[in-house]
Amino acid sequence: MIKLPKEFSAQYSKFLKDQGVEQRFQSFYLKWLRYYLDFCTKYSLKWSEKDSLPAFLIKLKSKNQKPFMLKQAEDAIHLLWKMKNSEEVIGQQKKPPEKSHNFYDIEAQVAKDNRVKQTAIATRKMKEVLPETEKSAEKHKGVDWRQVYSELESSIRMRHYSLRTLKSYVGYTRQFQTFVKSKDPKFVEVEDVKAFLSFMATEKKVSASSQNLAFNALLYLFRNVFKSDFGKIDGVVRAKHKPYIPVVLSREEIDIVLSYMSNPYKLMIELMYGCGLRISECISFRVHNFNFDMGILTIHDGKGKKDRTVPIPDKLKGRLKEQLTFVGSVHDADLKVGYDGVFLPDRLEKKYKNAPREFIWQWFFPAKELTHILKNGENRRYHIHETSLQKALRRAVKKAKIPKRITSHTFRHSFASHLLQANYDIRTIQELMGHSDVRTTMIYTHTVKSTTKKEAKSPLDF
Questions:
Q1: Domain spans of the chain, in order of start
Q2: Residue 286 falls in the annotated catalytic set
Q3: Catalytic residue, candidates 238, 300, 303, 357
Q4: Which of 6, 44, 92, 377 has the largest count of CB atoms under 10 Å?
Q5: Could you confirm whether 241 is annotated as catalytic?
Q6: Which residue ranges does the record assign to the Core-binding (CB) domain (predicted)?
Q7: Domain 146-224 falls in which CATH fold?
């Protein structure tokens, strides 16, 4: 493919900017320009002749390019001609030396005799090929992807990824399937992925994290289901990543929110703040996670399947023991009605058949009602659902009228920020939070006032 000289690329980009083309789209315009010049060279056409454009668009259409891409390519070529005819850009410059690689040298490469004749021949050939190409393309669309999803789920479960990861990857795969109109997986290409990621950024305007999740999902799909690799992906419009500073509550604000809550939700929020827990970690505690003699709470299978320990807050020990007594009474009542036990992870139940009914495996925050499973007629106990906790917190926040965006994760942010404010070192906080990289923990340095440098003030306060 023709490589555009840097001087010309810069000149063309400046012209695009003058014509109102946003900078994020300029790389695409340059890409279409290279394709166009390469096409003209291959079919012995003159790039400056307008008859070459229809043949080029027919070629793109035969490659199953999307309508908005065809429009973008057409605009890129029209702007090239406009720049060529502009005295402001071209002027009356003299033709450079023969071996110089510039705008005029490109013209010399693609200029041939009998241009009109060659254009007509190329256009006719393209029109003859196009119907068969379109027919073939349509033939490979509307294919059943159920086998793809089956293999994707099996692959994720085999690697013991979380259910959230499975749900996320399946969701983005469905979006991708819709975008390519259920094309036969055998004919799905990296170009489809590029177009999909660019579509998410430009049309759907998703966040950078959502686009990265989609990229990871499709990368996993290609490697583990389609058995192919992306290679290097260039020319994708990436969603702009915005620096995020978490919302943190003061100790007084936390007390105000808690005053509008009742147990067990109040105790759960206090535990999340007191130990820096994620909501998924808090709701899934079992009896054996609490070691009151040592004052240690063990989190099993946290984010990334990592385990960690945190100290149990002294102020909560009495109420946590009361909750443990309540769990014991619920368990005794369940045993009397002959329930089938709690849900266990993975294949633990197959290995330990009596474990679901043993006390140590009971949920620390059990659901109010038993769950009836239609498939086998069993009655099982599940933990409090996270949406129940979120709704209770939302009601309390509404009553508290605190002018901050507060979620359950805000209390985890507050835990880290208050420890940092109390001069705990960043490595200790990293271990308590369960972060793999200290750079993730470093974001909390933006939530507390610095003690080592002069505090920033407004000139109005001088």
A1: 6-139, 146-224, 251-446
A2: no
A3: 303
A4: 44
A5: no
A6: 143-226
A7: DNA polymerase; domain 1 (1.10.150)
